[in-house]
Design goal:
326 residues; alpha/beta; 12-stranded mixed β-sheet; two-stranded parallel ribbon; 20% helix
Length: 326
């Protein structure tokens, strides 16, 4: 019908295709999918989301010569292997693939879709299926990332291994295993505080990389460690070198964000549409406390917005005593 007509009119032009909300139970939806996949060789940007088809329903060519962006969001209402689409793409040759987004799929860290050519990687799970990643060796995860040195954007949400109480270094065979991602501009991770701390300690990136760290199951006991490692990433060169000062700060009961530049106070007061911060730390379920600020370089801070979490006069004195330029 309409899909076939549009594909016909496009002749041999490269295609950007979004396939959303289709079901194999409907014959017309099966025809739509068949029409789209028939033109697979000229698709350069493909988004698939929330469609109830299995990998065996995907009649794909063995190569996708133009495909540079692939996004798959499996329907988490049907989190079974037989209804996961992502495995259908694992055997396809995609020489131009640079952008990959996998959300709520059944794929593991061993997937061949993690190619050295990638510059943008989004790999997300959810609470219901994050258990499949819990026991993976952290050393293996770091080796996989090491094979993708061109990464500019990295988003890892609920896919990092879980750390037991045996200590931060236990998942790695040696503590000096570090991975460098020199092109990284944006890093987003969501995991437990211990996993976030360990991961950041063993990942090296540019001093301009923006960090967005989201910690679940946070407590007052494990917050200082994650803030300390974030502060270490603000240093210009060596781990013991001076930290680049933060000149703007937003502090609330659940998050703290910092910028090296001086932001207009009205932007901080509105609390929305922030420019990309140097770092953002979000925690749940506990409230942010003053202790998280102890290791941050705030001596040159000028504009600060505090919405919640500073509770008494002593807290205010401690905060302002470190920031003489506010």
């Amino acid at each position: 019908g309409w899909t076939c007509e549009m594909l016909s009119r496009s002749k041999r032009a490269p295609l950007k295709v979004s396939v959303i909300s289709l079901s194999s139970a409907r014959p017309d939806h099966r025809e739509i999918l068949k029409d789209v996949l028939r033109e697979f060789s000229r698709i350069e940007d493909l988004t698939i989301g929330h469609i109830r088809f299995s990998a065996r329903d995907m009649e794909l060519d063995s190569t996708a010569p133009l495909l540079h962006s692939l996004s798959i969001d499996d329907d988490n209402s049907y989190p079974t292997d037989c209804l996961s689409l992502a495995p259908a793409f694992e055997k396809i040759e995609m020489p131009k693939l640079t952008n990959l987004s996998l959300s709520k799929t059944q794929l593991l860290w061993s997937t061949p879709l993690f190619k050295p050519s990638l510059t943008h990687l989004v790999f997300r799970s959810d609470v219901s299926s994050m258990g499949r990643y819990r026991d993976i060796d952290f050393a293996y995860v770091l080796r996989v990332l090491e094979s993708m040195p061109l990464l500019e954007h990295l988003d890892l949400s609920d896919v990092l291994p879980s750390l037991t109480a045996t200590g931060d270094q236990s998942p790695l065979p040696q503590s000096d295993h570090y991975v460098s991602l020199p092109a990284l501009e944006t890093l987003i991770i969501a995991a437990s505080p211990r996993s976030c701390t360990f991961f950041l300690r063993h990942l090296n990136f540019s001093t301009s990389t923006s960090m967005d760290v989201r910690c679940t199951d946070a407590s007052s006991d494990n917050l200082p460690d994650i803030v300390s490692v974030i502060a270490s990433k603000l240093r210009d060169s060596s781990p013991t070198g001076p930290a680049r000062p933060l000149r703007s700060l937003y502090f609330s009961s659940s998050s703290v964000e910092g910028w090296h530049d001086v932001l207009p106070l009205d932007i901080l007061v509105r609390g929305v549409a922030f420019p990309r911060p140097r770092f953002r730390l979000f925690i749940a379920p506990c409230n942010m406390s003053m202790s998280v600020l102890a290791s941050l370089p705030l001596d040159e801070a000028q504009n600060v917005m505090v919405t919640r979490g500073v509770t008494g006069p002593d807290d205010w004195l401690k905060l302002l005593g470190r920031m003489g330029n506010v």
